[in-house]
């Protein structure tokens, strides 16, 4: 919400994704000495212009035969990621994954910075950008244990000159139905040097992008490396999911079992990543750090999305193979006859929110079940879930409170099976008083062991 002036009651509501687009267009096209955005009316004018453009694109997409639901899919990806953001949890995920014992050396070799230093800098600089638009790159960060060399490495990872960012924006920009959803290089370069003659000053137009750059965005730094990190990255994510499960589900009511390899006809099988069980049901959890390609987020009817959904279907079918081995007594895990609920847990949310996308995923799963000589009926007997770890961190607390069977088999579950799992409990169990707490609070001390005495006083406590 923005107000015209302290004494003027006029106000105007806009959204962060609209600022995301506006900032991109300013960097790409602004020239001359005009400062049309410095006034209240100027900002309103340009935000409304963006709204008119996006509305026109949506109407044209629908008229072209793609339909309203297909037009909705990229819209959800554009907007939902900004609406329910827990920065603390996002930082914890990145810290635990990239400081994992099998991944930490690869990460530091590629980036030149450790995750401890990354967290110290990101939290410090992130705090500055909440109050100031500019950053002094020569600032001394020794108070948080960061050397000038590491500080410079951080800025090299996250900053670009105005000419450099404009060139990259021009290369990525599209002028079709995907205009509003095109990959924005500000995601990779959230800090900008507007004046190369004053290289000690950087500008941060959107602080939210800086936080995402040094959490989810770190994946792309590894992607530029020639080192083989895929398996280690997946294992690190799997272990992080395990930390979350152990924090959510108390051992006096739930049993948590990690991966147990076994053999079937001399064929080695890894087994399911995690199993969580109680007296009412069993969760089979397959962890997949694989991300939805950005091209898939731009269109709900393109090859990129279909390929991504086929890859996701592989994970679902892997779960069904594990379930088949378990109920057939071929694995080491002793099935007790309770219902099994398959979960694919992803790092980022895929926002599988529209019927045609879900239907395509189910069709892919059915075809892959046929190829694996497994009955298609498994989808009805053991319906699968797809959820992000962020959703599971909250929904898991509701499952812990209610019990696996009660949550996973409730009447309203179909609406939340692939999207916004954490939204189920308030709708299906409005009378239940479920307390949601902050998870993995010991992470603060792990990130900053030398500040333990201070963190013990500052650490947030209690429910969310």
Mean pLDDT: 86
Low-confidence stretches: none
Structural class: alpha/beta
Cross-sheet strand order for the largest sheet: 7-10-11-12-13
Q: Alpha-carbon distance between the termini?
A: 24 Å
| Number of contiguous helices | 20
β content, as a range? Answer: 5-15%
Number of strands: 13
Helical amount among residues, as a percent range?
40-55%
Reported for the largest beta sheet, the result is:
5 strands, mixed
- Taken from the alpha-carbon principal axes, the silhouette is globular
Radius of gyration in whole Å, from Cα?
A: 24 Å
Question: What can you see in these coordinates?
Answer:
Helix content is 49%, strand content 11%. The relative contact order is 0.10. It is α/β, with parallel strands linked by helices. The protein has helices spanning 16-29, 40-66, 68-79, 87-98, 104-111, 115-129, 148-158, 162-172, 207-213, 218-223, 230-248, 294-298, 303-327, 355-371, 378-381, 389-402, 404-408, 424-428, 443-447, 452-458, and strands spanning 2-5, 8-12, 134-136, 159-161, 191-193, 201-203, 255-258, 262-264, 267-269, 274-277, 282-288, 340-346, 385-388. It is globular, with a radius of gyration of 24 Å. A hairpin with a 4-residue loop joins strand 10 and strand 11 (282-288). It has a five-stranded mixed beta sheet with strand order 7-10-11-12-13. Helix 1 (16-29) packs across helix 8, helix 11 runs parallel beside helix 16 and helix 13 crosses helix 14.
